[in-house]
Structure formats: structure tokens, C-alpha cells
Amino acid sequence: MRDAMKLDRFTKALAQSDFDLVVALSPENTWYLSEAVIDTQRTLLERLAIVAWPKQGEPVYIVCTNEQIQARHESWIPDLRGYVEYKESPMAFLAQAVTEKGAAQGRVGIEKHSLNAYFFEELTRLLPQAHFVEVGPFFGHVRAVKTPDEIARLERAAMATDRAIQRAFEGARPGKTERQVGAVLSSELILNGAEMQAFQVLAAGTNTCSTHHRAGDYTLASGDIMRTDFGGIFPGGYYSDLARTICIGRSSAQQEDLYKILWEEHERLIAMMRPGVPCEELYVTHKREWEKRGWAMVRPHIGHSLGIGLHEHPLFMQGEKAVLEPNMCMAIEPNYMLPGVEKYHAEDLVLITEQGPRILSRSADWGRLLTPGG
Amino acid sequence: MRDAMKLDRFTKALAQSDFDLVVALSPENTWYLSEAVIDTQRTLLERLAIVAWPKQGEPVYIVCTNEQIQARHESWIPDLRGYVEYKESPMAFLAQAVTEKGAAQGRVGIEKHSLNAYFFEELTRLLPQAHFVEVGPFFGHVRAVKTPDEIARLERAAMATDRAIQRAFEGARPGKTERQVGAVLSSELILNGAEMQAFQVLAAGTNTCSTHHRAGDYTLASGDIMRTDFGGIFPGGYYSDLARTICIGRSSAQQEDLYKILWEEHERLIAMMRPGVPCEELYVTHKREWEKRGWAMVRPHIGHSLGIGLHEHPLFMQGEKAVLEPNMCMAIEPNYMLPGVEKYHAEDLVLITEQGPRILSRSADWGRLLTPGG
Q: Is this complex scored with an ipTM above 0.85?
């Protein structure tokens, strides 16, 4: 299960960096390096898991003893150490590892965006001579380009999610509630191989205008737009993230037109996704297109890299100079809202290749506005 | 929907504290004060939502503009301010609010366990005269005692979760996979009223020994112990958290004995849950009981307060001097593992009242080892 190409990419980047040691402590970066996916890193944020990786020498993996059986089972890192929660501090274990690895007076890359201020104050007390530097962008750069194993995982996750959406939407008929459709969506995701649901936006009618509406008691009526933005966490911690829009029962000519405009824009953006293209270019061209139609474009981004993180670096946003590279996996998600009425949303996962974009996420033809029960 | 008793409890505690202003920025504390449950606070940790509440004057609620429609819809706080993510810093908005409220040189309670080191460094640069003090224990104390509305929410959540477990376990027959049972569990939770699943441990046979095993491809056999530790997030952000154990098909006399010992211990601990009892007393008496049987007790705690947080203050652990008070809602969860074979686990939610403990979480009789398909 150890992805040697991925770890090779990481260690080469570390060798070329000016860090003496880097510390991973976000769920994403510890999962990436340890290959153990410990769910409680998301639900119990105080229960830290940490990988400390020196430029010279072997990494140390620190977990709460409650998670030690799983960590031993899933991780390839031999040097696993367990702290007892509420009794021992993970920072004491980290300081010990940094010292052992000779970096107590060195340049230590650490995730200041993920470590809380309380632990960071403790760590700087324990290692007063260390120079702590933000390591987030370093990991972002490493993780942005995927290995064949990662691409295969992301494609399986995306296809499974698309099938779950298809199945749930097939049963979305007038008279059903959002909640009933949402329950099918949740269970189909699991049956299709997800380890857990990560998020579920599911809305019909005017509810579609609320960015993160949760499925509720609203009863579907013929002519309602239904929108989902939906994702799970799959083996290895890899995310899926797709958005689809349908119309319940019968659609109007205006709804079909709006969907067609959105879909053509979606396809146009995908066609732009080639190596060498700056990420901000997609944002800027899309903003121009929407504004040409007189549609306000206030969203700060229209897509993002996807992997073991949900919104990974780089994003399609103004000012993002990073260029697309082969083997990046990018989610692209234009949307359009008729204010107070309904919102249309499309999102696919696209692999960047030398030959051009390859869509990883379509198990069905979403190119026209589908109307189950119509 | 505004819980006036809850906010009254909070403002009285604030008036008696030595804070000039307190800042909530964990999902739990912002949901508690704002009553807007914004899911992305869990999935996108950088997308902060913040409530700044001065001792004198009205609170300010700061959210990312992406979430502003939902925040306006769900929150009762009139002064709502939106920052554009990746463009504007939530810390700039917070510093502005603290200054407006006259606390820029005051004693500011802040959640150092929830604010990351990067944002905290920025905030201390923006407000160099402010004195920042950890506010976590203050919120922990306020939230530990529930209002009638909160108790009703927690009871509905617990009962819905118990029914979902019952339904999923009814279909847990030899030949099915863990994953199939898990999918029913997930969808029943949503159909019973959860807004999202928070976590799902579901394991059979030797998999039950792994603390946080996820349902996988393992096929159930007659005689397998099956264990779940399962919870959702319900309206208002309130958690459920229950553990149940059954035996697939036919159980052995030893399995029935072990379950009986666990259950009697569970009931004995519940009977102790009365106002005035120190939390550590339950831990110590349980440890003594297990050790009398020659069973090692290495777990750091055996239960916790439950509410808008999963592991709230106080916990049933050694050294926890906090005493039980009326209207606390406490999860109690003894377990026993036959190492390498199987683990038995029971968890219920108990309301502390002057009249004694009241169990909020039993929709069925779990007092004997149930054997679906047996």
C-alpha cells in the first residue's frame, strides 16, 4: 500500500528545501506521509497525530494511544510513538523527536495554519532555539502533482460519487422530500466504496440558492431545480467533490437554456485545462464571460486541486500565478444563480495531461438538463 | 429558535468573569452563540466564523461571504459582517470589532486551542495592546449545563440514533458485509432526522478490537460480535454518540457472560450519576472493578459531557474534580476487550437530575446480548 513514488517526490522536495526537519500535523499531511487515515483527526481536533521528518534520517510518527492499533496496522512508518491523551502532551513527544533528529536549533517547517496557538506556545517553550517556519506551501506544492496510484484512487472516488448521485436523482420525484433523496445519496455513496461522507449539499427549488443547504423537509414539486454538491472520503483519505443539477418532473424552456449556458461554459473551461496555463486565467476568462452576460461574478474562486485535501493548492482564482502541470487533478465548478429563484451548478474532476484534459468523473451524460419523473 | 435561557446563562457568566470581551471561533462555540450551524466550519478549517461578544454592548458575528445567506437566515445576531475569503483576513475583521467594542487594550478571552498559530500571530500584530487569555474553560463551564431546549434536542438526537442502530442491526445477518450494515446505519440516521453523520465505527469479529474501525468488506459469520460507536449532528449542531454491541446469529455462553458483566457495570455506573458526585469517582470505581477481575484499564476516560461538542467538559477521568450538576447530559461508555478476539462496548446518554439519573437514549432493551438472525 506504500506509494513509493509519492514518498520519493516528497523526500526529493525536502532535500532541495532549506528545512532541517518538517512537521506534518494536519489530517491531510499526516495521512499523506503516514498512509494511516485516522478519522478522529477530523472529529477530535485536540487528538493530534504528527509526522516529524528530518532531512537526514528516518521519520517519527506520533499518535494518541487510542489510535495506536490502527496506526500500526495502516502506516508503513516503523518508528511509531503513542502519547496518552489528557495526561501527556503531543508537543512533548514532538519536541523530543525534533531534538533526537538534531533539529532543535534548526529550521523546522511547521503547519502554523493547522497547529493551534496553545500547542504552538508550548512547542516554542520546549524548543526555544528552533526556528519555526510555515511549511504549508511546501506541502501544497508537493501534493499538487499526483502519482498514478493517487490518480487511480481519485478517479475511482469520483466515478463512485457520480454513480451515487445518478442513483439518488433517478428516484427524485415530485412528492418526495429533499431528506429522502439525501438518504439515498448517503447510503449509495457508502455502498459505492466511500469510507465516509465528507459533505452533502442537496437542495431543491429556492433552497438551491443557499450555498450549503442541507437536505430538509421540503417536498419536491415538478419544475423544481435540484442541485447537489457532494463528496466523500475514500480509501487512503482521498476526496471526491462533484456538483450536478437536474430538474424534477418537467423543465421550462428557460431552465433548459440556463443549464445549456452553464454546461457550455463548463466545457469551455475544461478545454482550457492544459499544462502551462496559469490558474488565474480560467478565473479571469470565466468572470469576463459571465459579466458579458450581465451576471455578477462575486465568487472568489471557481475550482481547486483535489486530493487528500478538499480545497488543495492551487485554486482557480484571481492572482493565482501557479500554472497547471501534468498529473494535477483539478475540480472545476462554474455556477449561475437566478437570485431568489434557483442556482445551477456543475463540477467535474479533470486530470491535466500533456495530451490535454481528461475528465475523471462522468459515469453518465450530464450534458443536458435531466428530468427524472418527467 | 433563539434559546433565551442559554444566552442568559452565557451573559451572566460573562458579567461575572474578568473578560472585557470573549471571542468564539470553534464550530461549537460559534454555533452555541450564533445558532447558525455552518457545516464548512468543520470541512474547511480556514473558513473561520467568529462571534466577538463584549461584556458591555452587542455581539458581532463575522463569516465568510460564501456563508452569509445561511448565517443571516439562521442566526439571531443582528450585526453580521462578511469577509471575502483569500482576499480579506477574518483577523482584520475581528481586530476591528474588538477595537469598536473598546477592548483593544483589554482582557480578551480567545480559544487558543481552536485558533491556528498563523491567525493568532496576525491578531497579536493587529492588537498589540490586547491581553489574550484562554477562554476554553469558560465556555466549557457555560456549555456543560443544558437548558430544557438543549436537553430536548439531545434526547431526540439520541433516540433517533438508537432507532437507526436498531434498524441496521435487525438486518445484520450472516453473509452480509460490514459495509452493507453500515450503509443502512448511515441512511437510517438521516431518515431519523440527523443533518449529517458525524462518525461511524462499525466492526464485526476481530475488527471490533480496533477502536475506530470503519465498515469494510468483511462478511459477517454466525457467532461474530458486532459493535458500533455511532453519532450524528442534529439540528442546532447537537451531537448524538451511542455504542451498542450484538452477536450475529448464535452467541456462545462466554459471549453472553461477558456482555452481562459489561452491562451490569454500565448500569452500576449510571446509578452513580447524581448531583454532587465528582466525575473522577466514576472512573476510579470502574477502574477498580475491572482490575479486580484482572482486566487492564488503560483508557484515559470512560465518558464525557455531550452537547454541541462531542467530547465536552467534563470527562469521566482520573483527576477530574468537577462534580455532576443537574441538567448536565453525560455519555457513559464502559467497554471490555478480549484481546485479539472481540470488544464489547455500551454507551448511553444520561441526564443528571435532582431525582437521579435519567437515560435519554434507549429506544429498545439492550440489557441482553441481542442475536439477529439467530
A: no
